[in-house]
Amino acid sequence: MRGRWPVYLLVAAIAALVGWYTVFTQGVIAELRRETEVSGRMYARIYRTLGDTSAQATNNALLDLSEKIVEMGVPVILTDPVGRPTAVANLPFTPDSLTDPRITAYLRRLDTENLPIDERGAGQVHFGNTPLVSQLSTIPVLQGALLVLLLVLGAYLLFTRERAEREHVWMGMAREAAHQLGTPLTSLSGWVEVLRDRSAADALLGSAVEHMDGDLERLTRVANRFERIGRPPRRAAVDLESAVRRVADYFRARVPSLAHAIVIEVATEGPGPFTVEGDSVLLEWVFESLVKNAIDALAGRGGRIVLALAAMPEGGVRVRVSDDGPGVPRDLRHKIFDAGFSTKAQGWGIGLSLARRIVRESHRGELSLVPGTAGATFDVTLR
């Protein structure tokens, strides 16, 4: 639902625009009917005047026609042969007098809408458009806006459909990989048990078996994670301190401890417990991804990785994963969470992208890169 809000917003905008367009066109139709009625009354008055032989018939007809022009809302300015205003009608302001400078300024504007009518010996008639013409001029703009919104919606739907199809393929591949891993994992588990039986007299073999057993357990967890991709996350109480310590213990036994040693530490800020509602399997995946990136950054130079837990005053827990490596270049910080982006030659560029998606979409939290000049620091905020 959260990922579809642009579609809902575009649909709502199109619906609002179509509704307004419908109401607007109905108003235009009503205005056309009114102007048609006024025009009909003007023609009727002209023909009635033609049959009237009284002395005041022509003057009365002209007064009636001027009233009809005012009723139609046509802005008009009459000027004498030297360009001085002699009469005005339907101006958007009330002039103080015919010498008001605003009349001259508005006259120029009317001339940009329509060329003035020159009456020989009488002057000129400067007129503008009726309100209906002004309204009709907005229809192409509305139609263009509606077309643009439809094109944007269509392009977005095509993009999301293509992305959904790609994600569906990836989910299918992940689940198939998890299924295929099941058989060799079962076989490896049996061989580890055989080696464990023979390790009683060999301390080195016993130590190797323990590490193999840990790797086997991790492979099982990875297969379980792949199986969970695309499924609703589980919601249960998760002790983040225990989850973080498990991740730290796992990597601590597998990082260099002599040349270019890497030290992994867990720290807590303030009293616990550090418990949130979530999926422990997916959250450990997030922490492992962050620690693995830190280890890769420290490869060949050594350094220190700290996983710090802190309870937030407004509620929730923050897990900060930091290292003292080279850090993230400033020009790449806005790209590191993009799917497919990686600074490693053999990287797939899905670790941070998937981690952020797990935190945001499955736990309504936030995974962010903390600005800094030394090393890299990532904050996982969960509530």
Characterise this structure:
The chain contains 9 helices and 11 strands. It has 383 residues and is an alpha+beta fold. It folds into 4 domains: 80 residues; 54 residues, no CATH class; 63 residues; 150 residues, Histidine kinase-like ATPase, C-terminal domain (Heat Shock Protein 90, 2-Layer Sandwich). A 5-stranded mixed sheet has the order 6-8-9-11-10. It is elongated.
Task: Supply the key terms.
55% helix, 4-stranded antiparallel β-sheet, 383 residues, alpha+beta, 5-stranded mixed β-sheet, 9 helices
Distance between the termini: 20 Å
Averaged pLDDT: 80
Share of helical residues:
55-70%
Number of helices: 9
* CATH superfamily caption of the largest domain: Histidine kinase-like ATPase, C-terminal domain
What is the radius of gyration computed over CA atoms, rounded to a whole number of angstroms? 39 Å
Major sheet description: 5 strands, mixed
